[in-house]
Structure formats: C-alpha cells, structure tokens
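Protein modeling request. Please complete all fields; requests missing the sequence field cannot be processed.
Requester role: graduate student
Desired output: 3D structure, token encoding
Chains: 1
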Amino acid sequence: ARQNVCRQNCLAGIWVQDQAYPLLEGNTCENNWQWLWPGLVWLLLLLLLLWFPGDCGGKHKKKEGGENGTPCLLWFLGIAAASTAKHLMDLLLFLRGNKQSGIAYSESAGGTARNNTCRNNQSDGIGLGGEAKPVLEGNRCMENRRHGVCYFSEGKASGTAVRNICSQNEASGIAVGGQAQPQLEGNTCENNTYSGIAYLESTGGVARQNVCRQNGHHGIGVQGQAQPQLEGNTCENNTYNGIAYFESAGGVARQNVCRRNGKHGIGVNAQAQPLLEGNSCENNKKSGIAYFDSAGGTARNNTCHNNDSCGIYVGEQAQPLLEGNTCEN
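Delivered output (329 residues):
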C-alpha cells in the first residue's frame, strides 16, 4: 500500500491483522476518529425503545381510553436489540481503546510501515496489539490524541521502531505497555504532553540512540515492573527528568546523556532498582542523579557535573550502591 490517503475513518486508517505482512509506504493517515459508530448504535437503540415503549407486565388487555398495550413481543425485540447493541458497543469500545489509530496492527501481523504520516487521529498514530511484530521506519506520528506509537497493554507486541518522529502528541511519543518488548532505535520524541518514551507494566526491550527532548514530563519514563535496556539515548530539556524510574521498575540505563532537564538528569523513585552505568548527567536544574523513597539499585561510573543542586542525591530511605562516579562543579 503506497501513497494512499486514509482520513476521517471511524476505525483505523489502515488496519493489519491475522498473519498479514504488508509493506505500507508513504501513506497519510489522519483525522481518523472513534465516536460515530457508538453514537449511532445508542441513537438507534433509543429510537427503538421510544417507538415501542412496551407494556410487559402481563396485561395485554385494552387500557382506558381504548389504547391497546404494546405486545410483549415488541418489548422483547427491544431487549434483544439492546443486548445486540451492548455487544456491539463492547466491541466498538475495544476497537476505540486499542485500534483507533492511523495504522493499527493486531494478532500476529507484521511487515513494514515506512515513511507514513499519521497525524491528528483520535487515538494513536500507530497502534500495535496482540503479538504483532512489524518494522516501523521513518514514520511521522504527530498531533494524535494519545500516543505517537503505542504498543498496547493487552499484548506482547515486539518488532522494531527505527528513525520515527513522534511529536506533539497528547500523551507520550512512544508508549510500551503490557508485555511488549520492542527495539526502539534512533527515534526522535519531542514536544509530547507526557514522556518522550514511556515503559509501563511488565515491558522490556531496548531503547538505543533515541532523542527525547522538550517533553512535558520526562524524556524516558519507566514504571510498573518494566525492565528496559536504555542505551546511548539523549534526554534533554524535558520539564521534569531526563530518565525517571517509578514503582518497582528496573533494567539498565547505560551511556545516556541527560542534560538541561527541569529537575534531575536521572530520578529513581519508590522501590525502583535500576543499574545506572556510564551516564552523563549535566546542567540539570536540580541533581544529576537523585534517589527517593525506598529506591535502590546501582550507580556506577556516571559523570555528574554542572548541576544546580547535587551531583548525586540520596534521600529518605533510599539505599543505592554508588561506585566510581564523578561529581564535579
């Protein structure tokens, strides 16, 4: 599928499912939205029930004034329609919450999506569920109501996202949920409302040489029980932290550059226990590396310089192992 324009569709602009492996190249998928069909279902149901109000109390005799009661059969038809509408609504809500994207992959779909533009969709620019494993290369996902690229929370999606631009989305640039373990390499995630890249739940995989800048929360956020490997990323000019760990998150952050962020270069919170190794944290508004709550893990051979507060801060009940770090200026 090459150089198609898919816009203002009620579901996804392009939907790839089962074991399909298409090449999607140079398509524009925009303004796809999610409210029309659920609204129509409920409107039809309401009209049906208003048209057949029913008298299903077992009294089919004539009412006062000579008006016959509506037979129970019509009322049961209304109930049947309501049940059908409910199942359809459940399906549409599932689609709305998970597949309402410019491009959507589900089940075991794969293939390649290259140089597509996915913008202003009511859900994600590109959404991946099930065990989908496509290659996403050079796509522009911008101004979507949720994420630029989203690996859904109910799935185990994987595959590779390389050199995509995810900007000005109302949630995160790239969100990795469920048990997804994609490889994210060379992507630019900037000016998103939340994080440039967000790891949630039990996710993993590798994020390598991505640029995450000027995002509303963090450059890269890791939470839940996520255990990603973050390597060689640049996280700069984000509102809060360059890299932030929460809850029971862990994994490895190695040789990342975290600079000029509004709070810390790397922040480790709650019970998170990552390995931080060989990172450069410089010119941040607070600390280069900061530990809070009951956080732990290891910080080894990191360089923290020219930060406005501490090189490395350890507060509350945090107990990290600090080894071979350089904190200066």
